[in-house]
């Protein structure tokens, strides 16, 4: 007897872990925005439109904790904080590009309906 009815199977633990981070609203867009190079909080706020400053700060902290983003403080004056992708974060950029390509090819019809 098939222990997985209808071909269902448990999600891979690594996929589950990835979506714990990438499944949160805004995280993918922040990573994508940082793909253009290091930037400031204000730069990210302008690029990732629609996100509140509080949520942006929260998501940047989470991404830094996940070792996908670095936060560098230049004591100035004036004090400047710069955010950049780590090597692990940069490795996500092709994945996000593929996901965007897939969405354009497969979800456009649902968006236009």
From TrEMBL:
Q: Which UniProt keywords apply?
A: DNA-binding, Transcription, Transcription regulation
Q: Where is the HTH hxlR-type domain?
A: 11-111
- Is the Transcription keyword given for this protein? yes
Q: Name one GO molecular function term.
A: DNA binding
SUPFAM superfamilies associated with the record: Winged helix' DNA-binding domain
Q: Which PANTHER family match?
A: HTH-TYPE TRANSCRIPTIONAL REGULATOR YODB, TRANSCRIPTIONAL REGULATOR, MARR FAMILY
User: What's the name of the protein?
Assistant: DNA-binding HxlR family transcriptional regulator
**Organism whose genome encodes this protein:** Leifsonia aquatica (Corynebacterium aquaticum)
From the broadest rank down, the organism's phylogenetic lineage runs:
Bacteria, Bacillati, Actinomycetota, Actinomycetes, Micrococcales
